Amino acid sequence: MRYVYIVTTLIFTFIYSHSTDYSYDFIEASNYRTLGDINEDGAINIQDVVLLINLILSNEHNDLADLNNDNISNVLDVVQIINVILYGQEYQECLELDYSTEGILTNLSEQIFNDDESVNTFSIYSWTSDESDRILSGNGIPNHEVGTFPNPNCPSAISEQSINHTFSLFPEIVSDNGQAIGGPGGVIAYALNSVKFDPGTAGRCDDDGVCSLAQGQGQWNIEALGHETFDFGDDMNHAHVQPTGQYHYHGIPDLLIDFLNQGEDMTLVGWASDGFPVYAQYGYSEACDASSEIISLQPSWKLKDEPDAGRPEFLTQLSGGPGGGQTNLDIPISMGAFTQDFEYIQNYGDLDECNGRVGVTPEFPDGIYYYMVTNEFPFFSRCLKGDFSSNNNGGTGGGTGGGGNIPSCDNVPQGMPCCGDGICGGPENSNNCPIDCN
After folding, report:
1. Domain count within the chain
2. pTM for the complete prediction?
3. pLDDT band at 342 (very low <50, low <70, confident <90, very high)
4. Which of 87, 109, 132 is the last residue in one of the domains?
């Protein structure tokens, strides 16, 4: 104890000799745990230094005492905590703890008649929960104005779906880089109104520029947004309709955000299939500081400086989907038309490779991992970092996973995805179209 007293006295002397007004030389915590605030009294100060020294001497560990995240408490942490007291820090760090979304929007039920001429039916959705899961039940009908459907570039009408989906109330990060999901691989997320997010498309091009907007062949994946080469008939909500009649978002659902009436605040717009929340466009400039400025968060994906080798430069033929059957074309394919035109650069923007990050939000003041819908590519995540294996297999778009039966080829325009065309893609899977997917 004599050693502790001597060391503490020296630290007191050092801190006070370098501080003209030490009442400002600590970090005020808000509603979340802060690294360095070992006694969790809302301030980082000399009391935390004393506790840290005692932890070191007793060979004990405390997450809040491990300022450099090396899983041990030692003199390096003492140096860092003194620097925080003396000079402050740019922002407070929120820890990746055991996440819980219990009690957040688990008692929500709406039945709203949508009189838009392309809808003319009720938007019905409810969110409840049991001991372990968040439960969505809905009909997939939007609760806001939509574009005109069918239209020349999207010949399907909006129809009711059977949406029944579960999400863990206790989401857990299981992948550092994310697991791909979406399209036939499963529903990546649902908005609060039970409309799904599905940012990818079934459109493809081959190396010769022969393309199809529906179940095309080739390695070049066509993007729905961000270019003018291909037109998928999307509306003012960056949404359109699949052949099943399922209206779905590819990007920011602007009129849903207007409906939620949060302005330019952080707005929770849905839940990803791994149980983590989805926010739209805006977030805190410092991820873990709720007092920081609200900004439009930027992805860390950027357009490549040069196209990949073998990338088609011109659209030569449109073989399927809306507008299919056109040949002898010579239309430049702009950079950004393909998923492969983009690359992820860590820390290039505010978000990670799955368009998410750990930070505080109005609903989660202690911090949580969350996904963002953004104005720029990838618009919405193409991967999930949490475990989605137990929730309807990610919601494949058929049956109770989220969305109606795949139409037979007798009931859709030529070239559109259908069950019986011999191609397993888009919303098709082994459950709703075994003839194509087995």
Report:
1. 2
2. 0.73
3. very high
4. 87
Q: How many CB atoms lie within 10 A of CB 225?
A: 19
Cβ partners under 8 Å of residue 290, min gap 6: 30, 31, 284, 360, 362, 365
CB 239 within 8 A of CB 198: no
* Structural domain includes residue 94: no
Quote the CA–CA distance of 357 and 367 in Å, as a whole number.
10
- What is the domain extent for residue 371? 99-438
Q: Which residue's structure tokens are 């039970």? A: 194
Calculate the alpha carbon distances from 332 to 202, 231, 307, 315, 411 in Å. Answer: 20, 14, 13, 6, 33
257: enclosing H helix or E strand: helix 254-260
Q: What tens digit of pLDDT does each residue of 58-75 get? A: 888 888 888 776 778 888
Provide the percentage of residues in the chain whose pLDDT is more than 70: 79
For 249, phi and psi rounded to 5 degrees? -95, 140
CA distances from 2 to 7, 12, 73, 79 (A): 9, 15, 20, 21
Q: Which two tokens stand for residue 337?
A: 């038309």
Amino acid at the residue 217 = Q
DSSP 178: -
Q: Could you tell me how many residues make up the chain?
A: 438
Structure tokens belonging to residue 372: 């963002």
